[in-house]
Amino acid sequence: MNIFRLLGDLSHLLAIIILLLKIWKTRSCAGISGKSQILFAIVYTSRYLDLLTTYVSAYNTVMKFVFISASFATIYLMYVKFKATYDHNHDTFRIEFLLVPCLVLALLINHEFTVMEILWTFSIYLESVAILPQLFLVSKTGEAESITSHYFFERKETAVAGVNELSTAMHC
Description:
Layout: H1 3-26, H2 34-47, H3 58-81, H4 96-108, H5 115-129, H6 132-141, H7 146-171
Helix pairs in contact: 1-3, 1-7, 2-3, 2-5, 4-5, 5-7
């Protein structure tokens, strides 16, 4: 097991748990972009679809399942459980302006032209821009809670690491 991957996964997992606990304890999703959360759910779903076809290790399987489940749990809390606290009026970023270019890029620039590879590449491209609706929301409201800011800083760091991973894979 690569220690850096373990530390990265644990850091990412901690950030997700903190966000879920923050929403649950405050019973509010104010200040959090639902559109960014939808994009992250798409990222993990498209990246980890190989969960259905490939077994690497118990750790790998569990982490993939946890990331997918946590992203959909966040969406559930925002759009169903605490729907009244979700700021529809300010979370207006048009995510199709991110989805379409990322998909086109994944079709054009990938390591291997297979469905799984294109989905994985798409997820890397999308993860690198999935934070934009959150930044757009913060710029419109001018508010960012400390805990939310820390969570999204960690997400940005994960996205940068993903782009570096893609770059390394493309040059091999």
